[in-house]
Specification:
homodimer, mainly alpha, 8 helices, elongated, DNA-binding
Chain lengths: ~170, ~170
DNA sequence: TCGCGAATGTATACACTGCGCACATTAGGA
DNA sequence: TCCTAATGTGCGCAGTGTATACATTCGCGA
């Protein structure tokens, strides 16, 4: 738990746990919408521009690790949702709360491994294969369109609920 | 008029229509999946790295213009589709045929103007507002998930058809 | 025909970026 | 205690977006 609390004055040569500190810094940059660069991540972690390369093969590797964390969080939240409609709400809310992270997660071929667990959770709630794909595509489409500002709407949560009800409920009987 | 053989291979100083040549070059790069850079576009158009700035404010402007062209093409194809199911097929097919362009179109806030026309066509086929949003989100979600490789599938067109039928048909009665 | 201003391309330069390489510093086991 | 591997730093390279100054050419009025 307790982070490595080193006084900034005499910072030691060795950063306590740079690996996770880099992840945290990268996440912050993403959330703040700042232009993302490995150097910026290193800067924020208070470390030289090349230090990250001791822990991650390259920029892609850092990003992929970050995407993995994202899927873990999303999976946790989805698992806690009581029913399909709630899951839809959780999914879209996650996307809107963490736009950068969400985009990263889905724009990365490498993230497919981390993604598997999330997909499993999603699949477990709908038995019919066609409906499973449909429900997921519907919710993912809503999330992406909202993120990209193609679906202007004051209350996204309500939009998701009514859309899911209107489209999915009839299909599932 | 005398053939002032300029440094670069006898081409005249003034490129005929650089504005559209740049768009074409940029499109090629996107389609080929090459790493996209303004300099690469200029190189492919056979022109100096800074020439594009005479025609486009900055890289964003070129990309936005490109996205606009993309929406025009998509709108044309959608307009020619006879019914909703066909439109869905066209939409996803376009995304899969032009992955780079499609991603560009939707990842760009500036492209909202060009996108308006496309949205209008999409909206004109479904009267109920909730279903309209739902249908569009469903199809867009399918396109994006297929593009990102989250939906492995040998025959995307069939997948789209069965999904649309399974989900949308019951909802529309 | 001349000539001049406006378009259009080029050259040069700067601040960034991702990343490779050599080196400095440190931790932890023998 | 000393040695070795792990970890961080410095420096350098190629490539990027973009600003500025310059060269070339076209179009148009005289």
């Amino acid at each position: 738990m307790c982070a490595v609390s080193t006084s900034s004055a005499g910072r030691p040569y060795h950063h306590g746990d740079l690996r996770v500190a880099l992840l945290a810094a990268a996440l912050e940059l993403l959330e703040e919408g700042e232009t993302f660069s490995l150097r910026a991540v290193a800067r924020r972690a208070g470390v030289s521009p090349n230090a990250p390369y001791r822990h991650y093969e390259d920029k892609e590797a850092l990003l992929s690790a970050l995407a993995g964390c994202g899927f873990d969080r999303l999976a946790d939240r989805l698992e806690a949702a009581p029913d399909l409609t709630a899951m839809a709400g959780v999914y879209v809310a996650f996307a809107l709360e963490h736009p950068g992270l969400f985009r990263l997660m889905y724009g990365r071929p490498t993230a497919n491994a981390a993604w598997a667990h999330t997909a499993e959770i999603l699949a477990s709630r709908v038995s019919d294969p066609a409906l499973r794909v449909g429900a997921w595509a519907l919710v993912h489409g809503l999330a992406v369109l909202l993120l990209d500002g193609k679906l202007k709407c004051a209350d996204p949560d309500a939009l998701v609920r009514t859309t899911v009800v209107a489209v999915l409920t009839p299909a599932m009987g």
